[in-house]
Amino acid sequence: MTQILTTHAGSLPRSPELIEANAARPVGEDGLTPEPTDEFRRVLRQAVADVVAKQEQIGISIPNDGEYGHLMGSAVNYGSWWSYIFDRVNGLELTGADIFSTEPVRSEPGNVRLTTFPDRRDWTIFAEAYQDPTSGITVGSQPNFPAATGAIAYSETGRQLVQQDITNFRSALDASGYDSGFLAALSPGSGSRIVDDHYGDEDSFLDAWVEVMRPEYEAIAAAGLTVQIDDPSIAENWDQVNPEPSVEDYVAFTRKRVDAVNRALVNVPTEQTRFHLCWGSWHGPHTTDIEFRHIAGLLLEIDAKFYSFEAANVRHEHEWTVWENTELPEGKVIVPGIVSHATNVVEHPELVAQRIERFARLVGPERVIASTDCGLGGRIHPQIAWAKLESLVAGAEIASGRL
C-alpha cells in the first residue's frame, strides 16, 4: 500500500499567548521592527514546540513551525506570510503611501503593470459586497506597508530571526520525533509588490529582491529543512492588472517572477524546495481569478521538487483535470489543496479521500501529498482549522487503503 502523506500550506492558528506576547513588544525606532524580549522569545519557543507536537498528535506527515516566526498581532490576519519580511530587510521605511493608498495604475497591451489593491477587478466588480460588513467577505486587517526608500538588503536582524526560526523548529522536531519539515519564505516577486521609491525600474527592483531573499532560503536549506517559497503573486497578480490583460502578456510578465525565484534558489538543492501558489487567501468571490490551465506550465518551470496549489475551494476544485493534459516531470510531486481555508465547513473524510484519489490516478499515488489550499492560521477559527487537519489525515488513510 502507498501511504498518502499529509502536510499543509504553512500558517497555523497562533496561540492567544503568542499573539499577546507579540503585541506587547515595544516598537523599534524604525517603526517596523518590534524589539524582542526574553519573555517573548520564551513564549515563541514554547508555542513552536506545542504546534509541532499537535501536528504529530494529529498525524501530519510533513510539519512546519506554523509560521509562528511570521508574527501576528491579532487572531485574524491574512498577510503575515508577506509582512514578516519587513522586519528583516534594510532600506524600507513607512512613508504613508502604501499598496492600499497609492493611485490606481492602468495597463496597456504589451505593458502589464500592477494596480493598487483596492483597484483589483474582483474588489471593484463586487464593491457593494466588499464594503458590506454583513456580506461574509473578509480580507483581514491590513498592516501599514513600507516603501523602499533606499537600497534594500537582508539585514543582520533578518539573519538572527531566520536562525531563531530554525533553532525553535529544529528543537520542536526533535522533541516530537520528526526527522525534518519545512519553513516558509517570501518570494522575490511578492516582495517587489511594495512601493518602490528608490530603484525607479521594475526589473531592477525585482532583481534586488532576488538578492534580499537568497540568504533566507540558503539558511533554511543549510539546516537540512525544506524551503517553501510562498508566491501567490504568480496567480493572484492577474486580478491586480486593470484592465484584464491578454494571457500572453500576463505569462510574459509572470515569467520574470518565475525566473526571479529560480535565481534566488540557485544554491538550494531542488529536493529541498517546494513552491506554494494560490489565488489569494481573502474570503471573497474570486470571479476574476486566472484559470489554472494558463499558468500550470509556469508553475512547473520553477526549480522545485514539490508544487503546492489550491484545489479544494469551489472556484478551483474543478481544475484537477489540468493534470490530464499536463505532464508532471520525472521526480516531481504535487501538493494539492484537499481541504480549504475559504469555508468554515469541515470536509468529510470521504470527500477528502475522493479528492486525493483524483490526483493519484492521474500522476500516481507516490507523487501526491495531501495538503490545504492555503494557510489556516488567521483565516478560520482555530477549532475549525485543527478539525480540518484531522479530517485531512483521516481522508488520506481512506485513500491510501483504496489506492
UniProtKB/TrEMBL annotation:
Q: Which InterPro entries match?
A: Met_Synth_C/arc, UROD/MetE-like_sf
Q: One Pfam family name from the record? A: Meth_synt_2
Q: Which GO terms describe its biological process?
A: methionine biosynthetic process
Cobalamin-independent methionine synthase MetE C-terminal/archaeal domain location: 209-396
Q: Which Gene3D superfamilies match?
A: 3.20.20.210
Superkingdom as given in the UniProt entry: Bacteria
A GO MF annotation of the entry reads: 5-methyltetrahydropteroyltriglutamate-homocysteine S-methyltransferase activity
PANTHER family attached here?
Answer: METHIONINE SYNTHASE, SYNTHASE, VITAMIN-B12 INDEPENDENT, PUTATIVE (AFU_ORTHOLOGUE AFUA_3G12060)-RELATED
Q: What is this protein called?
A: Methionine synthase
